[in-house]
Design goal:
Number of strands: 0
Strand content: under 5%
Largest sheet: none
Order of helices and strands: H
Helix content: over 70%
Structural class: mainly alpha
Shape: rod-shaped
Length: about 70
């Protein structure tokens, strides 16, 4: 294998690696965006759950108070 063949082979490998890195970079970028979206969603769910818990506690106290009044 002469130097020209070796250079052509290395060039081909370089191009393949470049394409792979570009694809990986795109994938990482998409995954980062998806993760960011999921963080927002989890935060919203946590806030909603906390509000529901608060409402449930209020209703529980009200029911207990009504039960005590009827006793």
């Amino acid at each position: 294998m002469d130097i020209d063949e070796r250079l052509e082979r290395l060039t081909g490998r370089h191009e393949a690696l470049t394409q792979t890195v570009e694809l990986l970079t795109k994938d990482v970028s998409e995954l980062t965006k998806d993760l960011s979206d999921m963080k927002v969603l989890v935060h919203d769910i946590a806030e909603g759950t906390a509000r529901l818990l608060h409402v449930a506690e209020i209703h529980e106290r009200r029911i207990s108070r009504l039960e005590d009044e009827n006793s």
